[in-house]
Every structure is written in structure tokens, then in C-alpha cells.
Specification:
Layout (H helix, E strand, L loop, with lengths): L7 H12 L5 H8 L3 H13 L19 E9 L4 H12 L4 E6 L6 E7 L2 H13 L4 E8 L12 H16 L1
Helix pairs in contact: 2-3
Length: about 170
């Protein structure tokens, strides 16, 4: 699916919603200088287009319990379509796996895992190996200190960069 064309007001809406998902429509409309009905129309359109995928709370997990974040590089034993399908299907059902991305280079996947501690992480890995989902080898990287957490997407910056690159290609 091709990227959606968004104007400055759409981008302003997205920027605010990323930081303040519980903002009222009235307050959002005031911030972007639109009527409440026009603002609501835009938000609904962004939702229908799938640009806004959902709303949720950002939870400070460290306030609830101590956890370890671990990145895991995974290489499969074999590289046939069914091997990738089997691995991906199994990983989708594991709550501790927050992210799993197929990657290029020397490994096949990079996973972000949250575990109570390293023993919990190792139990998870042992279960994955026992499940025989095709893991040939894996490398574990334990996060010792978070330096930067994901925040709002830099939409304005990325769109500006994309436009600059397109102009450069045309010259």
C-alpha cells in the first residue's frame, strides 16, 4: 500500500495524538486551529486509513516490577519458506517477545524480549529450543542501561528528509 498524502494539519494531529492520546477532540481542534467537527473528521479519516492504528497508555514498567530487557539475534537452521513460517508463527504467541523483526545480514531475526530476570529469559529460550521451531543459533544481548526509549515518531523530520531526497533525485 502506498504511503498516504498528509497535509500539515494531519501531521500536527498525529504529533499531538502520539504524545497525548487522551486529549479531547475539542482541545485538539483548538491546538490545530480547526473547528471541532472538522478536527473529528480528520481524526476519523486517519483512523480509517490505518494511519492511526490505536490508542494506548505508556506504562512505566519499572514502577510495577523489575524486569530485564534482552535483544536476541536468531539464525534458523534452514532457510526454506516453511522454516520461516514455523518460527514466525510460534513467536507471535509468546507474550515476552515484544518485537521480532526479520533482518538482513548474518542473522535472520532480531527480537526484543522482556523477562523478569535472566533466569526467566533462559527458561524462555530453553522452551523455544525444545519446541523445535527451527532455531539454529542465537546470541543474547542484555540491556544494562536504557539510553533512549521509543518516543513519538519523527514524522515531520522524516517527511522533510523524503522530500529533500526526492528533489535531489530530480536534479
Amino acid at each position: 500500500m502506498a504511503p498516504q498524502r498528509l497535509d500539515q494539519r494531519d501531521l500536527a494531529i498525529l504529533g499531538i495524538l502520539q504524545r497525548e492520546g487522551r486529549i479531547t477532540n475539542q482541545r485538539l481542534a483548538e491546538r490545530i486551529h480547526l473547528s471541532a467537527s472538522a478536527c473529528l473528521e480528520r481524526v476519523k479519516r486517519l483512523e480509517q486509513l490505518g494511519v492511526v492504528k490505536g490508542y494506548g497508555a505508556e506504562v512505566a514498567l519499572e514502577k510495577v516490577l523489575r524486569c530485564s530487557t534482552v535483544y536476541v539475534e536468531v539464525t534458523l537452521k534452514r532457510h526454506e519458506a516453511q522454516d520461516f513460517d514455523r518460527f514466525e508463527s510460534a513467536i507471535r504467541d509468546i507474550p515476552e517477545v515484544l518485537e521480532c523483526n526479520a533482518i538482513g545480514g548474518g542473522s535472520d531475526y532480531l527480537m526484543k524480549v522482556i523477562a523478569l530476570d535472566i533466569a526467566h529469559y533462559q527458561e524462555l529460550i530453553d522452551r523455544l529450543l525444545a519446541a523445535d521451531i527451527g532455531i539454529g543459533r542465537y546470541f543474547t544481548y542484555v540491556v544494562t542501561k536504557p539510553v533512549k526509549r521509543a518516543g513519538p515518531l519523527p514524522l515531520q523530520h522524516l517527511l522533510h528528509e523524503a522530500e529533500a531526497r526526492e528533489q535531489h533525485r530530480q536534479t
